[in-house]
Amino acid sequence: MNDPEIRRRELLKQTKRLYDEQREIPAVHPRYGRIYHDLYQQESDRKEKAGGSFYLRLVIGIFCFICFVYMDQSDAGVAEVNSTSITDQIRKDMDTEILTEVWNHL
């Protein structure tokens, strides 16, 4: 190896070492800061947000089921809706053409 090639390899090693050690966020315009942080957040931050809203949705689902069972057992109606009308709407076949047409107009 000649002298310039050795110098290039040494500079390459220094550059790799510099970028491996440097984990700071570069200067980003404030307008794009949130996007940058969302894209390049660290692994530990991602694991904390992975749960998301699952537990909230689970609690809401359980609450809706309990309300449905209560309405069914006590023959209660709320806003002219009872458990029979809810099960009828669930069993009702939907016309997918109408759904796609309405969806396309939104």
Determine the structural class based on helices, strands and strand pairing. mainly alpha
- Unreliable parts: none
Tell me how many strands there are: 0
Number of helices: 6
Compose a concise summary of this entry.
The protein is mainly α. It contains 6 helices and no strands. It has helices at 3-21, 33-39, 43-49, 54-74, 83-91, 96-105.
How is this structure best described in words?
There is one protein chain. The longest helix is centred in the middle third of the chain and has 21 residues. It is elongated and about 90 Å long. By secondary structure, the chain is mainly α. The protein starts with a helix and ends with a helix. The model has no long low-confidence stretch (mean pLDDT 76). The protein has six helices and no strands. 69% of the residues lie in helices and 0% in strands.
What are the salient characteristics of this protein?
mainly alpha; single chain; 6 helices; 106 residues
What are the SSEs and their pairings?
Elements: H1 3-21, H2 33-39, H3 43-49, H4 54-74, H5 83-91, H6 96-105
